[in-house]
Design a protein that fits this description.
Layout (H helix, E strand, L loop, with lengths): L6 E4 L4 H14 L4 E5 L6 H6 L2 E3 L5 H10 L4 E4 L5 H6 L1 H22 L2 E3 L2 E2 L23 H20 L3 E2 L1 E3 L1 E3 L12 H11 L2 E4 L6 E6 H13 L11 E2 L3 E4 H9 L6 E4 L3 H7 L8 H7 L7 H17 L4
Parallel strand pairs: 1-2, 1-4, 2-3, 4-5, 5-7, 6-8, 8-12, 9-11, 10-14
Antiparallel strand pairs: 11-13
Length: 322
């Protein structure tokens, strides 16, 4: 990543985008990173530290005008409708996730722009090993979100083979962050439980206590994005998406880890439609390809992540920011 490049982050007010924008601005300077949002108001930190544009990624002309006006050479395309919301609004999920990605790839083809696009464990669904899920296996998702991620992986690979677009991607597990509240994903229980532990000491979970899913803490998530985007193109042997693994734990294990810091936390369980989605996803992934090709190496496990989350959310609660 060179400091003479201009970068755009779509979905800049979302869970990953809001933190990625600030991380990139700290490295490159505020003026070099354009934050693009659509419906939400940007956090004050983003609004004050550099350019913020409002636009719809599904409208090619809007996206093209912003990219060309800011002379953007890298796009981190994070705008998407997530899994749980996508099941309630599948047509919106298809339109946003697929049309937005194709618009970005078309601009990248025309302008020689480098692209990061996140895939997800939602690409998995039926007929595959749920433990240490292989890099290459059956992709039969059970959600519209997953369908768009499989189609997106194929589209990214096609644009690289057909047009030479330098597009890079990882299959993210659930992402846990102290900066952004849950945003409509099936793995959001692993974020919401921390917030409710600090605010109310009670959480009603929408999946069973024995549910195990892979997770990654936001600092490692950001390092994965910057890591895969920072290596030479020759290091990237996959243009669909790399498996990414960090830590896996059950809801019960997460509750016990939090109760070490918040002993009075009580958790009840009321599984809903998201349980079926969770049961279709991996419990852990084989990510040897990512570790070998571009040096993926997470730093946080359950204990370290829990300690950091509790400290950060406690600080925010005391400041009246939670």
């Amino acid at each position: 990543m060179r400091n003479d490049e201009n970068i755009m982050v779509t979905g800049a007010t979302g869970q990953i985008g809001s933190e990625l924008v600030m991380s990139l601005r700290e490295r490159l300077g505020g003026s070099k990173v354009v934050a693009l949002g659509h419906r939400r108001e940007p956090p004050e930190s983003i609004a004050r530290s550099g350019p913020f544009e409002r636009g719809d990624v599904t409208i090619f002309s809007e996206l093209k005008e912003i990219v060309e006006r800011h002379d953007v050479s890298q796009i981190y395309h994070l705008a998407a409708v997530l899994s749980a919301v996508g099941e309630k609004e599948p047509q919106r999920a298809w339109d946003m996730n697929m049309r937005g990605l194709q618009n970005v790839l078309e601009l990248a083809r025309a302008n020689k722009t480098k692209v990061f696009w996140p895939s997800s464990i939602a690409v998995f669904g039926r007929g595959y090993p749920r433990d240490l899920t292989p890099q290459e296996t059956v992709l039969l998702p059970t959600t519209m979100y997953g369908v768009t991620k499989v189609a997106g992986e194929l589209l990214c690979d096609y644009y690289n083979r057909k047009y030479g677009v330098d597009v890079r991607s990882v299959r993210f597990p659930g992402i846990i962050s102290a900066d952004t509240p849950p945003g409509g994903g099936t793995t959001d229980y692993a974020v919401a439980i921390f917030y409710e532990a600090i605010r109310h000491k009670h959480y009603e979970c929408f999946v069973r206590p024995d549910t195990v899913l892979p997770m990654v803490y936001m600092p490692d998530c950001l390092e994965a994005i910057l890591g895969i985007m920072g290596v030479e193109p020759s290091s990237i042997r996959r243009r669909d998406a790399y498996n990414l693994n960090s830590m896996s734990f059950s809801v019960s294990e997460l509750v016990k880890a939090i109760q070490r810091f918040v002993p009075s936390l009580e958790v009840s369980f009321n599984p809903d439609f998201r349980q079926d989605i969770a049961d279709s996803w991996p419990r852990s992934l084989d990510d040897r390809a990512a570790r070998h090709d571009w040096g993926w190496c997470p730093k946080y496990d359950l204990a370290a992540m829990t300690k950091d989350m509790i400290a950060e959310l406690t600080r925010k609660h005391e400041l009246g920011q939670l």
